[in-house]
Amino acid sequence: MVIEPKKVVSVHYTLTEGTADGQLVESTNGGQPLVFIFGIGSMIPDFEKNLNGMKAGDQFSFGIPAAQAYGEYDDTALVEVPKNMFEMDGKIPDGLLEIGNMLPLTDQQGNHFQGMVAWVGLDKVKIDFNHPMAGVDLFFTGHVESVRDADPTELEHGHVHGEGGHHH
Ligand SMILES: [Zn+2]
Q1: CATH classification of 7-70+134-157 is 3.30.300.20, yes or no?
Q2: Distance CA 166, CA 168 (A)
Q3: What's the gap in Å between 14 CA and the centre of ligand 1?
Q4: How far is the CA of 60 from the centre of ligand 1 (A)?
Q5: pLDDT confidence of 7, banded at 50, 70, 90?
Q6: 154 Cα to the center of ligand 1, angstroms
Q7: Residues with Cβ within 5 Å of ion ligand 1?
Q8: Residues 32, 10: Cα–Cα separation, whole Å
Q9: On the CB side of 29, how many CA atoms lie within 13 Å of its CA?
């Protein structure tokens, strides 16, 4: 059975930055494999493109440029705002505005999103709205564990049931 749309695919992979020897981002080795339904838009399109047609046991090794992954780093998404925006009852909660903190925010349309504290000044802060992996070229190495047909209910729910998936 080969990987194609509506198959449940299980892979072990290691994700590094730029090349196979780059900085380690994450790895499934020693843990549970990544299990997902192929071809329903849950993964980065180039990730699926590289696995298309593979079968259990096949090895893979490929790069995905930042623009095709989490996007290029956008300088205009680094925004300076007054600190008092984050005051609650007249004061900023302790530890809220520390570099690297992810802040849950809401825009005027009520959409929820996250921004990272990138810089803290006397009365202003810079919040970075780029994806944490923006501007990073990805490199994947790994192998296909298994390929099976997705159940009709899995396709209906848009996620995998059982091992490595949802239990409900
Ligand atoms: Zn379900």
Answers
A1: no
A2: 6
A3: 27
A4: 29
A5: very high
A6: 6
A7: 157, 166
A8: 9
A9: 11
Q: Is the domain covering 75-128 a CATH 3.40.50.300 domain?
A: no
Structure tokens at 166: 């949802």
- Regarding pTM above 0.85, the answer is no
Query: How far is ligand 1, taken at its centre, from the CA of residue 122, in Å?
Result: 48
Sketch the domain layout of the chain as residue ranges: 7-70+134-157, 75-128
Kind of pairing, strands 24-27 and 138-149? unpaired
CA-nearest of 3, 4, 51, 8 to 153 is 8
Closest CA to 146 of 27, 38, 71, 66: 38
The per-residue pLDDT for 107 is 79
Per-residue buried b or exposed e for 76-114, using 16+ beta carbons within 10 Å of the residue's own CB = eebeeeeeeebeeeeeeeeeebeeeeeeeeeeeeeeeee
Report how far apart the first and last C-alpha atoms of the chain are (Å, whole number).
Answer: 27
pLDDT in tens, 74-112: 999 999 999 998 998 999 999 999 999 999 888 788 888
State both tokens at 144. 């296909």
